[in-house]
User: Fold Microsomal glutathione S-transferase 1 from Didymodactylos carnosus.
Amino acid sequence: MANDYAALSVIDVVQGTWCAWTWIALCLIWKNLLVMLLLTIFRFREKRIRAPEDVKMMKDGTAHVSGGPSAVITTSAGTDVFTLTNADRCQRILANEAEYTPYFLVLALAFCVIMAGESTARLVIYGTIFGFGRILHTLAYLPLKNGIARTIGFLLSAGILGAMTIDLCQRATKLAVGASIYNTYY
Assistant:
């Protein structure tokens, strides 16, 4: 009987730990999502572009370049033309992937641990939407060169990260509270 209580308290501690981890992940990931949103707002206010196709999204068509070292600015008939080489575009794609993919992989691992056996369908749906968003973002940078498609790809990816953090926090909190109540009454 005493061993049963010891095992239950260990389960309670583990679930409480995962609950704390998910809330910390939620705060950190949502902080970064907020900073990315602020960055987007500031770029549009200051008319700072990351790729030539972004000029089409600006209202008056004028923009300042915030490009890398090999971004080229040329003057043609009194207007500035901003170009990116394919190498620059690939570098930006890899930088973006390095920002978002680790978050997804860590959250997917947490899904496997916290929701073992009951999260497969959710994880497949989240993974499919996240993967589609990242692929759309990549295609929008290289062959499509379309700022709106790139924005949609980003929003899909960021939205999935946000949804996963909320989903994990809800489930981990429910497990921790349930284990705590179970230990109180039994």
In short: The two ends are 11 Å apart (CA to CA). DSSP finds four helices and four strands in the chain.
